[in-house]
Q: What sequence folds into this?
């Protein structure tokens, strides 16, 4: 994962897990999974796949996203922020 703006210290393990989850869901993409990558526009992930990714994130980190949060998640950074809010 690359990014122009590095995540806060201590988040790299979380970010790696998020990247792995996304990569598992969209293995066919050649686009780099960056912190500010838009799930749809940059990574080519359709809305159903985004839901699947978020379900896997919830399982992996042991929490449930609220509907209002789900609608606001459009980038990898949004997923990271949602996970970090719960830690």
A:
């Amino acid at each position: 994962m690359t990014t122009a703006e590095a995540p806060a210290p201590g988040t790299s393990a979380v970010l790696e897990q998020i990247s792995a989850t996304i990569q598992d869901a969209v293995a066919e993409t050649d686009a780099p999974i960056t912190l500010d990558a838009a799930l749809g526009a940059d990574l080519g992930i359709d809305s159903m796949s985004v839901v699947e990714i978020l379900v896997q994130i919830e399982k992996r980190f042991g929490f449930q996203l609220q509907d209002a949060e789900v609608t606001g998640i459009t980038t990898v950074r949004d997923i990271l922020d949602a996970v970090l809010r719960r830690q």
